[in-house]
Write a structure and sequence with these properties.
79% of the residues lie in helices and 0% in strands. It has 13 helices and no strands. α3 packs across α6, α3 runs antiparallel to α10 and α6 runs antiparallel to α8. The chain is globular and about 55 Å long. The N and C termini lie far apart (53 Å).
């Protein structure tokens, strides 16, 4: 009887801890949203005359180009995700990896960055793969993308880092730590403890992955450049700078991956850095438009793949 009472108390404590975590995540998310709105509002208010007198003009060509480059980037990183998964032994077709990535990627825009990983767990558990394999693959992907971004920033925008008083040494340290985390022995140690095979993982794979994801950052910067052109023409001479700030802000946002919410970091960062090439109030509009349009693009592709999946399921049901 006493043992049952202890079990009940223990279960109650666990439930309370989980509830507090949810409340904490919700509070942090709400606070980050409010702070973001206030900061962006102040930036717009300071140059409200420019925004009020701005000549608004719809530019369909940059919108089409933004969607086109985004599509290339989306499939590029989807294939990279499939490559990582297959190295860890999933051995699914790349079509299924692309579908799972695109469907789960839509959850990235929800405040609280852990949601899209949870959606991956669900999709791959349906394919018969353990949550451990999916989690390790997601971790490898995150570190590879971060390391690739650091290389882009260190090569092309060291001057920008110093201008904004961001020490390149910090990125170098993060890069070295990332290489240590991705050491094949470290990954194998994790997987062996979880009874998952990763015998073919090597540093060659890791270096190939870093090189591969460098292009994903470049594609992302081009998308931002084209979205900016929808609102206000930006000189092609600023393309490299925009690729660099997209990468820098992306790395900073990634470093907050395990926080309850990183909402607003991208918008504030882009607004401040884009103000070097356009007025600050216009930069805020570009940053917010980027989030909205990326969500729209992701919804379009996720909806298409969900439709394909449903269509295939209905066809198989009819055959049976």
């Amino acid at each position: 009887m006493l043992s049952r009472s202890y079990d009940f108390i223990y279960a109650l404590i666990i439930q309370l801890i989980r509830a507090l975590r949810k409340v904490n995540r919700l509070v942090v998310t709400i606070v980050s949203i409010v702070v973001t709105i206030i900061i962006l509002g102040i930036l717009v208010y300071k140059q409200r005359e420019i925004l009020i007198n701005f000549h608004w003009e719809f530019r369909p060509v940059p919108l089409f180009l933004a969607f086109l480059v985004y599509t290339v980037a989306l499939f590029w990183v989807s294939v990279g995700w499939g490559w990582i998964c297959n190295i860890l032994g999933t051995q699914l077709s790349y079509w299924k990896h692309i579908r799972n990535y695109i469907v789960s990627n839509m959850a990235k825009r929800i405040p609280g960055t852990i949601w899209y990983v949870a959606s991956r767990f669900q999709l791959y558990s349906a394919e018969g793969f353990s949550a451990t394999t999916t989690a390790v693959a997601s971790g490898i992907e995150l570190v590879l993308i971060t390391l690739a971004g650091i290389i882009v920033v260190l090569i092309f925008s060291t001057q920008t880092l110093l201008e904004y008083q961001i020490s390149p040494v910090i990125l170098v340290i993060v890069f070295i730590l990332g290489l240590i985390v991705l050491h094949p022995k470290v990954i194998r140690w994790i997987l062996v403890r979880r009874k998952v095979d990763a015998s073919i993982l090597s540093y060659k794979n890791i270096l190939q992955g870093i090189l591969y994801y460098i292009f994903s950052w470049i594609f992302g910067g081009v998308v931002l450049y084209e979205i900016g052109n929808i609102i206000s023409p930006i000189s092609i001479n600023n393309l490299l700078y925009i690729i660099n700030i997209w990468t820098l802000v992306g790395i900073i946002s990634t470093l907050f991956f395990f926080s309850p919410s990183n909402f607003g970091i991208t918008e504030i960062g882009l607004s401040l850095l884009l103000s070097k090439v356009v007025p600050t109030s216009i930069a805020v509009v570009m940053a917010v438009a980027t989030r909205i349009l990326l969500m729209v693009f992701e919804i379009i592709w996720a909806s298409l793949f969900l439709w394909f999946k449903q269509h295939d399921s209905n066809r198989l049901t009819q055959k049976d």
